Amino acid sequence: MGQTCFRAVCVLSLVVAGFQASAASAMVTARVCLADEVTPLAPADPNVPEVYRDIMVGTRLTIFITSDTAKPCRVKFWLSWETERQGALSPRGYDESIGNYVGSCLPAAGERALVTMYRDDLGVGVDLLPAWNATAGDLFILDYGAVNTGVCTIGLYALSAVPIPVVISQEPPDPPPFEATLIQVLSFHHVPSRDFDGDTLVNFVDYASLAGLWGQSVVSDPNAAVAADLNGDERVDVRDLALFGEYWLERTQAVGLSPEPNEIDSVP
Ligand SMILES: [Ca+2]
Ligand SMILES: [Ca+2]
């Protein structure tokens, strides 16, 4: 009898453990890629996956919202105005007739999935609502643009109950003005652009701009059209060359992708 009870407890434990593992994995998460929509943005530290490697001002990224189960929950990004000054989140393809950013809805989100965006006194919200017939996979896609140097920390919130508490190693600087569960934090570090001529590629033309100011003292302005003084010590020298070299031949945007009109001023 004792052995039977022991086996029963073991089986029950396995069932519960299996359920918890299933519940833990049944999540909606954000995945960050470069502008090519394929290459993942590498983390700065493999042990802290939500903090990514530094990106240049003017860099465009793509953010996929993915579910590993059918019946994904409704989620929402929210940025305070302070955060939005650092980085801009943009849904795609607004259809005015139905009030939906249809370009951000991917097939797995189901028919009549809905993406809306609003701006109020406190900040910017992007609401992502999968349809009743959503399936596992990539549900939505958004664009992200690095606007100013500094840190931009964005929270992804679930607007319904999540299966188990999610462990978050950091929180966005500003709490959202609504009740929701923080399920993921994206933290982007923006550094001065090395693409001095704004053609989206760091190459010899940009190197020539830096070399043309070699040894000179300049006024440091990381967002100026030409900002060869990358470390801000008001002199262009080998230290700036080393920082420049870290992004050699990198692109800030995908080939053939033009900046949106409201972002042109922010792209150095
Ligand atoms: Ca360039
Ligand atoms: Ca310098």
Quick structural summary:
The chain is of the alpha+beta class and 268 residues long.
Explain this structure.
The chain has a 6-stranded mixed β-sheet. The protein has helices at residues 2-25, 81-86, 204-212, 238-245; strands at 28-34, 43-45, 48-52, 55-56, 60-67, 75-80, 87-90, 94-95, 100-101, 114-119, 123-129, 137-146, 150-158, 181-191. Strand 2 and strand 3 (48-52) form a beta hairpin. The radius of gyration is 22 Å and the shape is elongated. The protein is α+β, with helices and mostly antiparallel strands. The protein folds into 2 domains: 26-191, Immunoglobulin-like (Sandwich); 204-262, Orthogonal Bundle (Type 1 dockerin domain). The protein contains 4 helices and 14 strands. It starts with a helix and ends in a 23-residue tail after the last helix. Bound molecules: calcium ion (2 copies). One calcium ion (CA) binds at residues 195, 197, 199, 201-203, 205-206.
The low-pLDDT segments are: 8-26, 259-268
Task: Tell me the strand order in the biggest sheet.
Answer: 4-14-13-6-11-10
Task: Write down the overall geometry.
Answer: elongated
- Associated small molecules: calcium ion
The fraction of residues in strands falls at: 25-35%
* End-to-end distance: 76 Å
Element-by-element helix/strand order: HEEEEEEHEEEEEEEEHH
The top-level CATH class of the largest domain is Mainly Beta
Outline the fold blueprint.
Layout: H1 2-25, E1 28-34, E2 43-45, E3 48-52, E4 55-56, E5 60-67, E6 75-80, H2 81-86, E7 87-90, E8 94-95, E9 100-101, E10 114-119, E11 123-129, E12 137-146, E13 150-158, E14 181-191, H3 204-212, H4 238-245
Parallel strand pairs: 4-14
Antiparallel strand pairs: 1-5, 2-3, 5-12, 6-11, 6-13, 7-12, 8-9, 10-11, 13-14
